[in-house]
């Protein structure tokens, strides 16, 4: 794993946070599925996944249904990233 200089989910760009939320709500997905669900460009999703992998929030596995694609899922670190902490999204208050 690359050195992440203490970076955490709140420090990442909005696109990475959106990809994180998509994976949190939907579970394991391919990059193509994330692009469709998030409505982000493929390039933006690739960058977001790369950033999430650097801080060990997302893992990449082989997608056995189509070996040309990878399956992305939250790691235990990623699942715990928001557990026990207040939601950092903007509220309607």
UniProtKB/TrEMBL annotation:
InterPro entries: WH-like_DNA-bd_sf, WH_DNA-bd_sf. Gene3D superfamilies: Winged helix-like DNA-binding domain superfamily/Winged helix DNA-binding domain. Pfam families: HTH_24. This is MarR family winged helix-turn-helix transcriptional regulator. The lineage of its organism: Archaea, Methanobacteriati, Methanobacteriota, Stenosarchaea group, Halobacteria.
């Amino acid at each position: 794993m690359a050195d992440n200089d203490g970076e955490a989910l709140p420090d990442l760009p909005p696109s990475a946070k959106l990809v994180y939320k998509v994976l949190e709500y939907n579970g394991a997905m391919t990059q193509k599925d994330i692009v469709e669900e998030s409505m982000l460009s493929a390039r933006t999703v690739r960058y977001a996944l790369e950033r999430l992998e650097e801080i060990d929030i997302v893992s990449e596995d082989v997608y056995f249904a189509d070996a040309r694609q990878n399956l992305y899922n939250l790691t235990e670190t990623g699942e715990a990233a928001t557990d026990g902490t207040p939601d950092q999204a903007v509220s309607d208050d």
